[in-house]
Write a structure and sequence with these properties.
single chain; about 160 residues; mainly alpha; Transferase(Phosphotransferase), domain 1; about 60% helix
Length: about 160
Amino acid sequence: MSPEQCKAHELTNASDQYSLGVVAYEMLTGHAPFAGSPFEIMQAHTAVDPASIRDQRPECPPELEAAVFRMMAKNPAQRYQSATKLLEDLRRTNIQVNPSAAYTDGFPGIPMQETKKGNVGLLVGLAVLFVVVLGIYFLTIIIQTRYDDFKYTTRIAVVK
């Protein structure tokens, strides 16, 4: 959740970029940037800098850490102004991306840490959650459409 979302401000593309930075941080460190209760996490997203990636993963290129932290800047104006600028900085890291190794070797160019057996369950859980949310979304659309049709036909019946 971006700092501006935690403060109930208008969301922009910069908010999505912040979320991408959080995901990259998690991929590199193996954990979320902040811990605690939901309220504490929201406060941290607005006021606390996450712990250094390189302190946890010394093999992480400094340019990659800098790019992740720029995406996670508290002020949206300090984040990348375009995806092109982000890609330029990521190319400077000299990490060789091998798409076929992405799921087996960890983050491209950085060896994978030991993972817990529960990660498969987590992925399955997330996939199920996605399908449920998608189903609820479409069900809501169907119900709203039928309700609108019902209101329209009711008006016609009253007019007659």
